[in-house]
Amino acid sequence: MQSAPSAPLLRIGTRGSPLALAQAHETRARIASFYSVDPDEIEIEVIRTSGDRIQDRPLSEAGGKGLFTKEIEEALIAGRIDLAVHSSKDMPTALPEGLELSAFLPREDVRDAFLSPVATTLRELPQGAVLGTSSLRRRAMALSLRPDLKPVEFRGNVETRLKKLADGVAHATLLALAGLKRLGLEAHATSIIEPDDFLPACGQGAVAIETRIGDERTSGLVARINHEPTQIALSAERAFLTRLDGSCRTPIGGLATIEGGVVTFRGMVLSPDGRQSESVRLEGSVADAARLGFDAAGELISRGGTAFFRADA
Ligand SMILES: NCc1[nH]cc(CCC(=O)O)c1CC(=O)O
To answer: Where's the Porphobilinogen deaminase N-terminal domain (predicted)?
Structure first.
């Protein structure tokens, strides 16, 4: 007689892109190793989201960030999965009722990479070069440094964008170094852009684990693999975004770094054409990280920085 398969220890929900799968597998490996269980006892369930389905128009027009999380969060609420693994950067600031971010993996590199077959850096691109990017932040920041560049829409997963670049659809593109590294594709980076020049998106490089509020078993299990400095940095960055009330139609950069118990938060808002911008830099204690992000947003609002994106919302 065959015995009935035993119920999995945990079920992880994720998107099916190679990057999402790499992140789900890393989460599974960390949990399995912490509890010394066979990784196969933790199921990975691939869920197709609206963001994966919609390919014909910019996502900022189709409804924004929530598109990559909606169906996964529905499965979580319904109890078909126990935890969801997401790129923090793709998550809306407001979570659906009943869900929480209960843990973060150690943050990967936060920087953006410059990729081009014709130049080593953004500054060295030929006059009027075509820049492929679907990120309003990268577009605005690139235009602030090089107003002559011609941005074109560049959708798809990391591999698709690399292929478009190789096919000559654009002279250059910008990608998160974190994604390239998690996919083992960092050799494709032509150069790396320092945050001083080009602030990353809030949450860039951080992987978030979402669970049901009240599911003590799962939140207890994942709490043990939580990377606290990442969680603290993310609390500042998410507070910043929440107060700015930015959608993905808004060029915003934000980064919290932690050193010796001190959190440094840098934030920036830009007009879509990159001609106007406001920046802020605040320091505070680790215990006040969320307050720091909140205050940084307040500072930009009081300087009128949010008028840049309110106008075209
Ligand atoms: N918007 C897509 C997305 N979401 C997360 C990453 C990269 C990994 C990360 O930032 O954690 C990417 C691709 C990119 O921006 O290059």
So the answer is: 10-218
